[in-house]
Amino acid sequence: MTQSKRWVERLCLAVNEIKDGAHLLEVIPSIRELINDNWAETGESFGLNADFEQIGKLIDAGFCKVFVAQSDEKIVGYAIVITGGSLWDMGRDIYTVEALYLDPEHRGSFVGGKMLFTIERAAKDGGAYMLVFSMRAGQPPFNFLGRGYQEVGTSYGKHI
After folding, report:
1. What is the 3-state secondary structure (H, E, C) of the chain?
2. Which residues is 75 bridged to in the sheet?
3. Residues 49-96: tens digit of each pLDDT
4. Would the pTM of this model clear 0.90, i.e. be above it?
5. How does pLDDT run across 44-58, given as a tens digit for each residue?
6. Which domain range does residue 9 map to?
7. Phi and psi of 90, rounded to 5°?
8. What span, in angstroms and rounded, lies between the C-alpha atoms of 128 and 140?
């Protein structure tokens, strides 16, 4: 992507929160290809079986937030954030980014940073005291440490 095209894209980029379940269901057809590409990159051996109506209900109940990045009316990225209280520190919320995906053409640009900034602002405005990213092993690292993040734990999984 040329420098001038990046500047034009920067002016045309918008990151928006999907505010309700009905809007999510309207947007899903526009981001289905990105969702499928994201799933393919995980390397999981089983197929994606997401229930978007259920995710919409979680949005409506305040337990989930979905963000989309749009450039020239085209959706080029999305994030799914789980919101909720800490079991160990009642009354304080932790937001967990379960998925953050950018179209490969838009990686390494400012799009990811703008999405992250928007998610951080929404978490802060929503009363969260921490934003956590859930990442799969082997994923290319986003520059979290340069943005003030620190490792807060390690997860292990086993397919059963």
Report:
1. CCHHHHHHHHHHEEEEEECCHHHHHHHHHHHHHHHHHHHHHHCCCCCCCCCHHHHHHHHHHCCEEEEEEEECCEEEEEEEEEEEECCCCCCCEEEEEEEEEECHHHCCCCHHHHHHHHHHHHHHHCCEEEEEECCCCCCCCCCCHHHCCCCCCCCCCCCC
2. 70
3. 888 899 999 999 999 999 999 988 889 999 999 998 777 777 778 899
4. no
5. 777 788 888 999 999
6. 3-140
7. -55, 140
8. 26
The whole-angstrom separation of Cα 23 and Cα 158 is 35
**Is residue 48 a part of any domain in this protein?**
yes
C-alpha pair distances (Å), 35 with each of 50, 78, 79, 81: 10, 8, 10, 15
Domain of residue 103, CATH code: 3.40.630.30
Q: Tell me, what's the pLDDT at 55?
A: 92
Residue located via tokens 């990225």:
77
Q: What is the CA radius of gyration of the chain?
A: 16
Q: What are 1-46's pLDDT values in tens digits?
A: 555 555 444 556 889 999 999 999 999 888 888 888 888 887 777 7
| 13-18: strand order across its sheet | 13-18, 64-71, 74-85, 93-102, 128-133
